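Lecture notes, continued. The same structure-token format from the folding unit now serves as the input rather than the output. Read the line below as a description of shape only.
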């Protein structure tokens, strides 16, 4: 089945094209080609997963052949690929199925599903790519699709602005990827940037080149995976349809950066400063985004900042790869990516179910006590919240604690090698991560209790401030204030099941299947093998205790009516305002970058209009004025004069022919 892996991106692509061409004839069934295409791709990816015995690559065709530069369209299958493909296609299938109910009646129904199919094609192509240049091509395709979906309701100014912001911020990161590729191409003798060729030539590359390329790749990853300082696009991306948010946060866009760094681990290993930088940025992002999420009132934005924080955990895991901990670190970071996909897709689709029932209102101050009206959404959302909080035995517990264990081992390994400064750094990151786990539990259950517990409260279906994502009145919506239809609740229940069992099935203490897969990836066999370790009970107890404390505080403040939140907000007003306004980072960025660029654009506009164009118009006046004086007497509009001139010209021509 590994040789049929090309079908995984091909099937969603064909489904996307069929939907674009014939979707208008299918009407309300326009989603079926994409659902069937992505679902079939999932089945093929399962065959790839169970059929893979060792890393393989296969050439589809020559893509670019210019002189000595040869870039083949070549796919590869190894442990990372075999793990990512089923996860991406499984989540995408459920999201597409959910969207069939969520997007019903939208005038852009066909366009939506066509772009979703293209999105899944781009992400699976990125995962299957066997060389950096092809990866970059699909990387840009993923960015373009996210732009189209975030700005799907482009007639809404906030959605158009969010799409533009996401596109531009990611262009900043993609510049780093492009420069890194050019740099890598100049130091690889034959210009062959396939993974096995690059990893096979590492001994001939000096550490400065590898560090520079690694930092540029990580710069690209901070944009795509929304890490400091390029995270600002992701919260605004909530302006897109909720299924898009689920797809971006769980299986496609933001996971691409983590995947790139994990894939490039053989290139980066052994560089003393690289791993601590990755772990530090991940740590700062995780705690900062968690701090923002504490006070947000938009349910989807709480989940968006949660994603930024959890991606930070993934980078902390991968960034703990020092000494003999390298393989274990990559396994920890990618395992958290794997489990996070299930419970974050569940939470986003759960928020979409709430929006569907609340007339597309998402402000938690305007609804509450929905557990009786929406029992399936409520209890599946609870499962996702428990998994995100990292409480046992749900999937988030296993992966979060593996990240914490990797940080602990990195500290011990650095201490043993005499690198006391790095050991202290990892120790500090470890404790910050445990504290952040408590914050995660608090803001997650704050959102859960505010949405589903307390006195029942519904927004008015005629509320003029309602954020109508589909731009029409919901007063006559048969699902207003009720549980979502089966096509939407079925994916919630499936994802809830996965959020419970995915971790324990694949975790190291049970089957160890995930670690076995990742360790059999291209270039990983040469990496230092992890030291033998058992289950880290100390880390498990600390992480779980932190989560329980956060859950308990959330219940005290929001599980039942209480004035404690308002009193704390008044007591700690500066801290509350800093969290609510996200440390004013957007305003700072606007003042530092956006406003000067807009001012420069205005200067350029006036210079172009009145300088360049004015000069051109002035030069154009010269021949016009001269020609007016000379030719006006001849261009008099009298036909007889024209005939006379023509006759004189013929006489002159005959004279020349006869006497010359």
């Amino acid at each position: 089945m590994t040789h049929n892996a090309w079908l995984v991106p091909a099937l969603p692509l064909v489904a996307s094209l069929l939907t674009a061409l014939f979707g208008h004839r299918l009407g309300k069934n326009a989603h079926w080609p994409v659902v069937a295409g992505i679902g079939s791709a999932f089945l093929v990816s399962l065959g790839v997963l169970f059929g893979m015995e060792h890393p393989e690559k296969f050439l589809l065709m020559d893509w670019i052949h210019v002189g000595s530069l040869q870039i083949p369209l070549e796919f590869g299958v190894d442990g990372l690929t075999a793990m990512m493909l089923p996860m991406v296609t499984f989540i995408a299938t459920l999201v597409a199925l959910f969207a069939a109910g969520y997007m019903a009646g939208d005038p852009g129904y066909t366009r939506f599903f066509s772009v979703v199919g293209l999105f899944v094609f781009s992400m699976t192509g990125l995962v299957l790519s066997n060389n950096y240049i092809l990866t970059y091509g699909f990387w840009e395709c993923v960015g373009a699709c996210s732009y189209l979906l975030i700005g799907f309701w482009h007639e809404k100014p906030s959605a158009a602005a969010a799409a533009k912001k996401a596109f531009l911020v990611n262009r900043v990161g993609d510049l780093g990827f492009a420069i890194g590729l050019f740099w890598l191409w100049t130091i690889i003798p034959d210009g062959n940037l396939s993974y096995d060729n690059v990893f096979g030539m590492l001994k001939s590359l000096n550490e400065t080149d590898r560090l520079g390329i690694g930092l540029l790749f990580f710069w690209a990853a901070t944009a795509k995976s929304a890490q400091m300082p390029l995270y600002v696009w992701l919260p605004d991306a909530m302006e897109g349809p909720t299924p898009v948010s689920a797809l971006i946060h769980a299986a496609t866009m933001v996971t691409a950066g983590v995947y790139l760094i994990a894939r490039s681990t053989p290139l980066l290993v052994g560089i003393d400063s690289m791993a601590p930088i990755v772990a530090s940025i991940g740590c700062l992002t995780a705690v900062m985004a968690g701090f923002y999420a504490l006070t947000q009132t938009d349910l989807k934005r709480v989940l968006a900042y949660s994603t930024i924080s959890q991606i930070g955990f993934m980078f902390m895991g991968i960034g703990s790869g020092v000494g003999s901990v390298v393989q274990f670190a990559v396994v920890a970071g990618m395992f958290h990516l794997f489990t996070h996909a299930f419970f974050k897709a569940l939470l986003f689709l759960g928020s979409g179910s709430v929006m569907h029932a609340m007339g597309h209102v998402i402000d938690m101050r305007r609804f509450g006590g929905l557990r009786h009206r929406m029992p399936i959404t409520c209890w599946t959302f609870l499962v996702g919240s428990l998994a995100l909080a990292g409480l046992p035995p749900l999937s988030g517990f296993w992966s979060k604690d593996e990240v914490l264990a990797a940080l602990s081992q990195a500290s011990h390994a650095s201490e043993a090698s005499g690198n006391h400064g790095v050991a202290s750094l990892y120790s500090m990151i470890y404790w910050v991560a445990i504290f952040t786990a408590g914050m995660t539990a608090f803001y997650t259950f704050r959102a859960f209790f505010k949405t589903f517990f307390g006195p029942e409260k519904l927004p008015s279906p005629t509320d003029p401030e309602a954020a109508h994502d589909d731009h029409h009145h919901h007063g006559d919506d048969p699902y207003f204030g009720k549980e979502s239809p089966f096509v939407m609740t079925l994916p919630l229940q499936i994802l809830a099941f996965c959020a419970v069992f995915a971790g324990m099935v694949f975790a190291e203490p049970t089957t160890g299947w995930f670690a076995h897969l990742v360790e059999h990836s291209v270039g990983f066999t040469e990496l230092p093998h992890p030291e033998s370790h058992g289950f880290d009970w100390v880390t498990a107890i600390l992480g779980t205790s932190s989560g329980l404390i956060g859950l308990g505080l959330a219940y005290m403040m929001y599980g039942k009516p209480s004035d404690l939140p308002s009193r704390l907000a008044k007591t700690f007003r500066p801290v509350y305002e800093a969290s609510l306004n996200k440390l004013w980072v957007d305003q700072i960025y606007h003042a530092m970058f956006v406003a000067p660029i807009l001012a420069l654009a205005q200067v350029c506009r006036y210079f172009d209009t009145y300088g360049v164009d004015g000069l051109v118009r002035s030069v154009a006046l010269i021949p016009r004025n001269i020609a007016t004086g000379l030719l006006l007497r001849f261009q008099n509009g009298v036909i007889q004069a024209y005939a006379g001139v023509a006759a004189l010209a013929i006489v002159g021509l005959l004279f020349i022919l006869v006497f010359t």
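Point for the exam: Residues 272-507+553-558 form one domain.
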